[in-house]
Amino acid sequence: MPHFIIECSQDILQQRTPDELLDTVYETADATGLFALNDIKVRLQPYQYYRLGAGKKNFLHVFGYIMEGRTTEQKADLSRQITSLLSELLPDISFLSVSISDFEAATYSNKALINPENTGKDRHFGL
Hints:
Layout lengths: L2 E7 L2 H4 L2 H14 L9 E7 L11 E9 L4 H18 L5 E9 L24
Parallel strand pairs: 1-2, 3-4
Antiparallel strand pairs: 1-3
């Protein structure tokens, strides 16, 4: 946790490499100090088939999923920072957006949480 999923039109990868996009989101999230060291996960999903509005040619959207507990201001700042840096990388993109959503701690589970040795229910147990 957190998870950042980059969805974009396939042509974006002609403008920037996957590593440039992944690294921009990863490094920006890391620099905020909001997340535990080595917890950040970033994935990229390009789309070959999509439909956009008239005159629009491409898009990129970052879905950020983070554990609840950060303020609205922290989430908004994270969203703005990612948007700003990606805008610099992709100045001619038609649509560029970022949304940050909370995971609810009460309904979240992972491998560490179901480990019978993890009596303290630490979601980072054994990592």
